[in-house]
Structure prediction request, 359 residues.
Amino acid sequence: MNAKILLLPGDGIGPEVTAQAEKLIRAVGDIYGLSLTIEEALIGGAALDATGEPLPADTLAKCAEADAVVLGAVGGPKWDNPDASKRPEQGLLDLRKALKLFANLRPVRLHPALASISPLKAEHIENVDMMVVRELTGGSYFGDKLEGDDEASDAYSYTRREIERVVKIAADMARSRYGRVTMIDKANVLATSRLWRKVSGEIMAASYPDVAYETMLVDAAAMHIVANPSRFNVIVTENMFGDILTDEASVLVGSMGMLPSASLGEGKAGLYEPIHGSAPDIAGRGLANPFGMLASVGMMFDYSLGMREVARQIELAIWNAVSTQQCTLDIGGNLRTDEAADAVINQLSDIHTKKVAFI
Ligand code: NAD
Ligand code: IPM
Ligand code: MN
Prediction:
């Protein structure tokens, strides 16, 4: 196989964790004998500074040609002026929209060694293993905006088709996990949520009678995610709710730095990024946890490159690094970003040569 991978490091800790992704991808290429082409392009604040655009045309063209795109993070205080006409984050939103990546998969699984890192009681979080499917190209993020000095508005809409396609992805996922779908909305207030409830109920009844299905209001869901997280299996929800609930869910597994994501559309091409941001408070100090990024690379091998076994071994390598406390400060280790990534690469090579299995 010859796959083309594009790296978009972005801002803050983005380049720090993307450098680890590149190392892992090259190591996978060597270990498994794959021919992988890696390129890099600008996005976010780095692109704004260099070209005046957060998503330069050249970057978008390279993304469209790639089999998979790996993104660090965008944004930071330097570009946070509320009066600025262009923001780094817009580059990421435009990219998701242009590549039609409507489904954002965010797995949340607790490594037992990290139960004590979470501020929640260990007995409340054991067995946490959920998949949040976040709609990514609709809702309040993409409606018309009015931005005045005395009034502002964000229009907010969803179509049946936008809801159907993402609910189907969640339901398929639940079926393969022998799980249940929880659709989270605010149907007691929002018209868009009432459409979500109607359309998802119809699809589940018509095409997935074998998959358990429930609905939940988002305010109650925010409570249940911390009070009783292991009750969730697959969550499907609109763009903004999915954004917020997954930052909340990261607390269950120890750190924002642990959670990966895959953004997918109709085809195989995808965008892979950790769920965290550019973390300006720790940028440039070697403190960033690279595991969410490395796990995103794992998802890339599965979903875009069709190599599930490689993905599984990357997951196992991260798991083993955590088991042996070879990790960054945020999850109780004392390694720097690059050392933690090296530990994963060493574990991967041991797994490949069958020296080590599951620790
Ligand atoms: P953030 O996710 O950057 O950071 C939140 C907290 O989590 C911080 O205390 C940070 O130190 C910690 N954290 C995040 N990633 C970590 C890691 N890998 N290892 C250890 N700790 C980590 O959120 P924020 O501070 O609200 O946002 C900062 C900037 O990032 C903003 O400009 C925001 O728009 C942007 N952002 C970008 C993305 C993205 O590019 N996908 C996602 C979220 C936020
Ligand atoms: C994320 C981020 C983005 C989002 C921002 C930076 C646009 O928070 O990927 O979770 O809200 O989708
Ligand atoms: Mn977010």
